Amino acid sequence: MDLSFSPEEEAFRAEVQGFLAEQVPARLTTKVREGKHLGKADLEQWHALLNAQGWLANHWPEQYGGPGWSAVQKFIFEHECALAHTPRTIPFGVNMLGPVLIKYGNEAQKGYWLPRILSGADWWCQGYSEPGAGSDLASVKTTAVRQGEHYIVNGQKTWTTLGQHANMIFCLVRTNREAKQQEGISFLLIDMNAPGVQVRPIITLDGEHEVNEVFFTDVKVPVENLVGEENRGWTCAKYLLTYERTNIAGVGFSVAALERLKLIASRVMKYGKPLAQDALFAARLARVEIDLENMKTTNARVIAAVAGGGVPGAESSMLKIRGTEIRQELNALTRRAMGPYALPFIEEARQEGYSGDDVGPQEASYAAAQYFNNRKLSIFGGSNEIQKNIISKMILGL
């Protein structure tokens, strides 16, 4: 297995770098680099730029609007985007639902929903977790009872990321209460503007309105919005989670965060010398850099396997575990580097146009916010404890 990039792949990297430098507004990259709040319009602008370039659905087949990239090209693109401080691509439509529709949807569903994902006509959110069903998704209690040509949906979803902006939600719903847990679940597409849908905000520790609760009361959903077979939605769910967990690893984000942390450590002074020369801090920095290099190699191995026709299995869980732990350690070290300046978190300082006095270095305005927000990384997409169980079953047969 060759883990180095070919001349053609290096040429592709240069093409991506040129696009990011020339086409992405400095206003967007500055907001990301400085930890400023990104609004709906910012995310939609990034979505539109990528779609116009033909790079938005970079893992879709060409027949559905993808660019025909290899797994290596996709990795290069995501890596360069992180280093260039671009906004993240909202994953729910492009990275999660799109692949599910391509694999399990019928031709009518593909023809209608996929172009709307690309154009941005629909903003999707994910309806998986419930108050009693987080990592144990097989315990979902939201029900969908068929009545003629509709399902009647009742229940609640929680931790619905950016649901306040969404007009559509894909949900796991229980369509058979008598069957075994996984066998009685279906995958349903629901209009967020339908009568009976209610969204309530959950304000997180960093002061953001990022997640929500979604309630369904006698919501009518057309039968044609069922993806795959009734009571076989667990298959769709597992397929989607493979994509989600691999994305959560965020190798590119960690590389960018490490570079930023090194710069901070070279500037912050402790006892008359740069923090980077403090023995304890330098040891933790070296440890996380070694872990990141190891994860990059593992990620490259997975990419090579996929390029050869393989399918990620336990590797997606491995990457999710190590990736989230590394990102959290980088957040912790950045916050530690800011010392007391990371404590007086000022929400207004993260808003565009803030003109008040800074508290400490510029990086202090987002150090605490990112630290607290990213505590969730090891929980969502299936907690890291659950991922270890998956690895044990798939590799050790336990």
What can you tell me about this protein's structure?
It contains 12 helices and 10 strands. The protein has a 4-stranded mixed β-sheet. A 4-stranded antiparallel β-sheet has the order 2-3-7-6, with no helix packed on it. 37% of the residues are buried. Helix 7 crosses helix 10 and helix 10 runs antiparallel to helix 12. With 398 residues, it is of the alpha+beta class. The model has no long low-confidence stretch (mean pLDDT 88). The protein is 48% helix and 15% strand.
Q: Give the terminus-to-terminus CA distance.
A: 29 Å
Strand order of the largest sheet: 1-4-5-8
Principal-axis shape: globular
Mean pLDDT: 88
Beta-strand fraction estimate: 5-15%
Using the CA coordinates, give the radius of gyration: 22 Å
Q: How many strand units?
A: 10
Spans where pLDDT lies below 50 across 5 or more residues: none
Helical residues, percent: 40-55%
Instruction: Give the oligomeric state.
Output: single chain
Structural class by secondary-structure content: alpha+beta
Write the element-wise H/E pattern from the N-terminal end onward.
Answer: HHHHHHEEEEEEEEHHEEHHHH
How many separate helices? 12
- Please summarize the sheet with the most strands: 4 strands, mixed
